[in-house]
Amino acid sequence: MRLCLAGIFILIASMTGSHAQIVTVTNDKIDNDSVRRAFDDGPYFGLYKDNYFIFGCPVGQRITRENSNLKFQISISQRLTRSTLPLGTYLYLFYTQKCFWNVLEDSFPMTDLNFNPGIGLTKPLFVKGRYVGKVSLIAEHESNGRDGAASRSWNRISIAGSIMIDPQLLVHSKIWLPIVDGSENRDILDYCGIYQIGTAFNSPSGRMGLAVNLVKRKGWNLNYNTTVEFNYRIFPRDNQYLFVQYYNGYGEGLLAYREFHSTIRVGFVIKPQRFSEY
C-alpha cells in the first residue's frame, strides 16, 4: 500500500501541465495568448483539485490513536476533446478520491474512502481580450463504494464559476441540482449542502496562498461547512507546499457525514500552478 501511494504521488507530481495551469503572468498581467494556447493545444492530463497528505486531530485536543487520522486527496482531470466544442467549450473528465486513514491504529485501517468522478464542459471567459475566469457544467457522482447500512451515494448536476479579480485573487462559486439515490443518506443535503462559495489569494511571488471555502447546508439558517487553508512553498521552483487545513462543520467524509468536526491538519500539498478547483 505504501509503495502504491508513493507511486501515485510521484505520477501526480509530474503532471503539472493540466488544464488548471492555464495562466501565465508577466509583470502582474495575464498572458491571454497563453490561456488560449493552453486550452487549444490539448489534450491534457493533470491536476484538478489539490492533491495532499495531511495529518491532525480535533481542535483543542491532544493527538491520540482514536481521534487522529491522516486525510489525503488525489484529484486529476483529462481533456477529452482536441477541438473546441460549440460555445467555445472543452470537454473534461474529472476524478477525485478522498480518504481518511487511521495511521496510529493497528493495521492502519482506512475508515472512509470517497470516490468522486465527473464529466463536464468548461468555457474560458474573456472580457475585452482579458482572461477573467471560467464557467463549467459538470455531472458528477460521489459514493463510498460500500453496501448495506454503510452505503453513501449521491449525484449532482453542478454549475461552477470562477472569476479572477486580479492575478493574485480569485472568487469562485458552485451550485448543484442534487439527485440523492442512496437509501442510507436521504438527508445528505442537510449536512453536505446545496451550494458553495469561496475565495483564494496567492502572494505575488506565488510562494504563499490562503483560501476559504464555505458550503451552505440546507435550510434558512447561516449554517456553513467552513474550510480554511494555508500553503507555503519552501523552494521557489518546486510545486510542493507545506499545507495547513482547518475544517469546521459536517460532511467532511461520506461515512460520518452527520457528525460535526472541527479539525486541523498539517502536511504537504501538490497544487495546480495558479488556483485550485473546489
Protein model, in words:
With 278 residues, the protein is mostly beta strands. Helices cover 9% and strands 51% of the residues. The chain contains three helices and 15 strands. It has helices at residues 2-13, 32-40, 189-192; strands at residues 25-26, 29-30, 45-47, 51-58, 69-79, 90-101, 110-127, 130-143, 153-166, 169-179, 195-202, 208-216, 224-233, 240-249, 261-270. The protein has a twelve-stranded antiparallel beta barrel. Strands 1-2 form a two-stranded antiparallel sheet. Strand 6 (90-101) and strand 7 (110-127) form a beta hairpin.
What order do the helices and strands come in, and which of them pair?
Elements: H1 2-13, E1 25-26, E2 29-30, H2 32-40, E3 45-47, E4 51-58, E5 69-79, E6 90-101, E7 110-127, E8 130-143, E9 153-166, E10 169-179, H3 189-192, E11 195-202, E12 208-216, E13 224-233, E14 240-249, E15 261-270
Antiparallel strand pairs: 1-2, 3-5, 4-5, 4-15, 5-6, 6-7, 7-8, 8-9, 9-10, 10-11, 11-12, 12-13, 13-14, 14-15
Q: Largest beta sheet, briefly?
A: 12 strands, antiparallel, barrel
Distinct helical segment count: 3
The computed structural class is mainly beta
Shape: globular
